[in-house]
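ok trying this again, last paste got cut off
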Amino acid sequence: MRFKAFLKRKNIEISVHRYLVDALGAMAQGLFCTLLIGTILNTLGQQLHIGFLTAIVANINGADYTVGGLASAMVGPAMAVAIGYALQAPPLVLFSLIPVGIATNALGGAGGPLAVLAVAILAAEVGKAVSKETKVDILVTPLVTILVGLGIAWLIAAPIGRAASWLGRIIMLATELQPFWMGIIVSVTVGVLLTLPVSSAAICAALSLTGLAGGAAVAGCCANMVGFAVMSFRENRWGGLVSQGIGTSMLQMGNIVKNPRIWLPAIVTSAITGPIATCVFKLEMNGAAVNAGMGTCGLCGPIGIWTGWLAPSEAALANGAAAITPGFVDWLGLALVCFVLPGLLCWALGLLCRRLGWIKDGDLTLE
């Protein structure tokens, strides 16, 4: 009882929701604000010849950085601080997670995001436990948080990173070998994760999901977001179209709990568009891996495909990707898989479900 009281006093809640929903979602935001934005800025600068985006603004330890490059380089600390924020860490703990994030992401390699998730959670909770327990808190809390974080990172970051990278490569290789079946599996799975209260973006980033598998993931996410937006238009009108279409299909989770059958059109749509992406258009997502789990949220999924065409990410390059000049078929595939087919298929399937009585008026209304 005394230990439980201590945990409650320190706001340490050991739960799946806090670690795999709150922390994972926050980590995705950290990824978005650094790696994803940095990639977009670099691509815009290179393709549109914008001088201040292509100029070298800093040289750190012999490495030159553009504005976008600096943003991308901060991905480790951004993820760690975002996780600490989600865990409601006090300021001294939160700021001490910056070096923890840098070290863990570097040690984790391609699977760095997953390593940062594990290490930042442990370091933040230990930091919270010692916070304000001594009269020299300004020394003790940062020292404990940093040393514990770096120690744990040294022990587990590399193995976690290798495991995540290995699993991601297995998924990508399987998709290359069996594009039809894996197109369905990846599309449906990531689409479902996108709508559930977990972060599909963070999961895709942790697995470094690029290539055909990344394309299938984008297809599944778009099927859910655009699908729900169009299917629920009669209930939610333009506000719902925008909030779900370029926001998140997670808004429908409350309605899904009440009537799970409203999810069927989006799931079936993702099962159709996934293999269309992998087998027909061979649509690859070679931008930052976090894009694979974003769908049309801020148009990040399509943007990731576009940036991957022009300037593949490091993870994609490591997996054999190369820059291409997109042709008509590439653009057609992007438009059909990300926008047109999700809207048409999900609307038609939703109409069928309404006529069967599986979906009734009001079932898709957002509160």
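PB: full thing came through this time. Residues 178-355 form one domain.
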